[in-house]
Request: fold
Amino acid sequence: MRIERKSNSNAMVLQILPLLLIPPFLVSTPAQVHPPLPPNQPRNTCYRTNYAPPRIGATAMPSPGILLLAGLFAIPASPQGAAIVRPTPQQSAWQDLEYGMFCHFGPNTFHNLEWGDGAADPKTFYPTDFDANQWVAAAKAAGMKYLVVTAKHHDGFCLFQTKYTDYSVKSSPWRDGKGDVVKEVAEACHKQGLKFGFYLSPWDRHDPSYADSKKYDEHFMAQLTELLTNYGEVTEVWFDGAGGAGHVYNWDAYYSLVRKLQPHALIAICGPDIRWVGNEDGLAPATLDNLADRGEKKVWYPAECDVPIRSGWFWHTDNESSIKSLDHMLDIYHRSVGHGANLLLNVAPDRRGLIPDADIARLKELRAVIEANQAHNLVLNRPIRATNTVRSDASHSAAKAVDGDSRTWWAAEPGRTRARLEVDLGGMVTFNQAITAEMIECGQAVRSYTIEAWDGTKWREICRGTTIGHKKIDLFDDVTASKVRLSITSAGAATPAGPATPAGPELTIREFGVYYRPTK
Ligand code: FUL
Reply:
């Protein structure tokens, strides 16, 4: 299949262009971990140093887990006095969503395009059987917890009713010009219990005002206002960084508008709350730090991996055969969610306005494998001991790390950078996977760890890793053992490249589990 992006001809350049257009300081790669922001940042970069997401207010929604943590937030610094960086409640709640569906839909769907130039006749947008509930049902059946829809892609066509351009669903014959894709998707999400988000491309290849940055800012913000007021709760606002080279955007104003109209929404990619992982393969590095430098400060900045299930972001007549294999998808899952990032998997609706059966089938297969692989935690509620524990009242005892309850956690004594949890398996047990999670609301502490198994005569190392963060999935060959232990070998506030320091966040383990994967 030939993916057409009209602005360029060189296929290679087209592949990497979106990446090149995102300022390098927003890109985190294993080789370049959170470089500091460059001084004198130009105004058209999609990031502002002076923006800190507000903490949740008294009227906010916190989950039971967050409420439980309220007392913890009262401790603002490590024993050594260094500020501890923690996620906002919205960020940690979003990290718990883990897996979401990205839906690219619009005129491109009807023209076999990836990047429309804004000239497609709106009458060609005509889904014959559009059903937002089917999209959401497909996402739920896949085990996804949120959905992000393209309200407007680079071609400028709006999938929602807007007063500010006719280049929208209003000018299409679909539902006699009265349809609103964003509305139906938002309602279906809210009804079926999925978190809702929208993608909005700042780059607009249709609107004449784009040539005048100030005028375009007004236009863009007017549409952003519509999206933030007419569609209920918005969890994620996805500002793409591709295209529009040289254009000056007033990012501060965009961010302020989101804060004002949807204070709990997270601003992603070209935004201060969620960062792009740095590639479109769905892969996070094995060492993934939730902290990033913002000017002089460190901030919590979790990563999202985005990748299409097929070869393109939009549906094409001839790309069904490119649906990724189950093995490939499982690998993506392990290297995104299993590395502590969120996975936003693009599944594009077709010209009927439905998620195709073939994609749904693959999503279900993936879910079935993940569930089978994580069905039985072999250390669940098994006897466990820790080399040290924060308090004597058992509220953060070692048992909390294997109780299967994500609201509880084991915590080491303050200032500890090494600790060990040892679990008695109660007989010889075979396993080949470990899943470990820190209680990130307390901050991210673990810098390195090993997992070892007792084979009856000695401890044998099964795997070792660096960061844990929100979740770490380790895969290894079958091991048969009567005891297993997790050793945190360094912890602290330093970046993975730097030395661990005790002046960091509390060392915690939210859950530790070992499993036997029938499917490898
Ligand atoms: C890129 C865009 O250019 C693609 O078309 C797609 O929307 C992807 C998610 O982001 O920057």
